[in-house]
Structure formats: structure tokens, C-alpha cells
Amino acid sequence: MTAHVFAYGSLMWADIMARVCGSEFTSEPASLSDHTRRPVHGQDYPGLQPLPVGVVPGRLYRDVDAVALARLDVFEGDEYERIGVIVTLADGSTLSAQVYRFRAGFADRLLPGDWDAEAFGREGRARFVARYVGFDLIEPLA
User: What is the pTM of this model?
Assistant: First the structure.
């Protein structure tokens, strides 16, 4: 089993995605309508929430295998739920994908405003990678 995965935060960086998944996947720019991404209090990564007029830019990773999906499930943890969505590719076509959306029960951890991907790339990325030194130790739940 494989699935396409839409990433909108730290996993948009292919090297971080590869470390989490244990392998590399082909990716391309994509966007997700009817959602917004918000900063998470005390973290460098964002949380995704439904928003009827929102559009979230990100990357679509193609054909992510079951082992990598299981590793992503562990990495994302209890704050996120994996759901099916429809994303829009750069050419305007659409595709089914999986995305990790912030669970409503944790919404009080989300800050107002949009998460800044450029600031993450400049400042937060190094902190994020240093904080998650256990990438290589992620094992799927049995």
C-alpha cells in the first residue's frame, strides 16, 4: 500500500521528510484548500486546521510506502490525525492525499496568525533538527 502525503510544515524540507520516513520520495509543490496552518505554542512546527476560505501551500510526496506512513504516524504523535484530502498541484490538477491535521482537542496550543515557512527555513529548521535527533530511531508501532 502506498499513499501520497501532503506536507505543510517541517516535512516540506525533503531532508527532514527522508529522515523521518527512512527513505526519500519524489515531491512537488501543491496546496490544500479550506485549511490554515497556525504556529504551535513553544514549537517551530505548525498545526493544520480547517478554515473554509484558507489555502495552505506545501509539498506533495508521491507513493509513500506503508513503512514510511507508519513512521510518520509515530513521528506526528497524538496531537495529529491522518486524514484524506484533495490537494491541488501546480498545473491545477487535483489528487487524493493524506495529511496530518491538528486534532481539535489540542487547538488551545495553536497561536493566532499564519505559520511562517520562510522564518522556519532561516531560523527554526536548525532548532527543529537538533531537537528531533531521534529521527533514525523512529520505529513503526507493531
Answer: 0.90
Q: Which residue has the cell 489555502?
A: 55
Task: With respect to residue 108, please indicate whether it lies within any of the assigned structural domains.
Answer: yes
pLDDT value at 137 more than 60: no
* Residues spanned by the domain of 21: 2-134
Mean pLDDT along residues 120-129: 83
In a domain, 142, yes or no: no
Residue 141 lies in a domain: no
C-beta separation of 61 from 99 below 8 A: no
Tell me if 37 sits within 8 A of 115, measured CB to CB. yes
Q: The domain spanning residue 33 has which CATH number? A: 3.10.490.10
- Structurally, the chain folds into a number of domains equal to 1
Matching residue, cell 514549537 = 43
Q: How far apart are CA 65 and CA 39, in angstroms?
A: 28
The DSSP result for 67-133, as a single string, is: HHHHHHHHHH-TTEEEEEEEEEETTS-EEEEEEEEEPGGGGGGBPSS---HHHIIIIIHHHHHHHTG
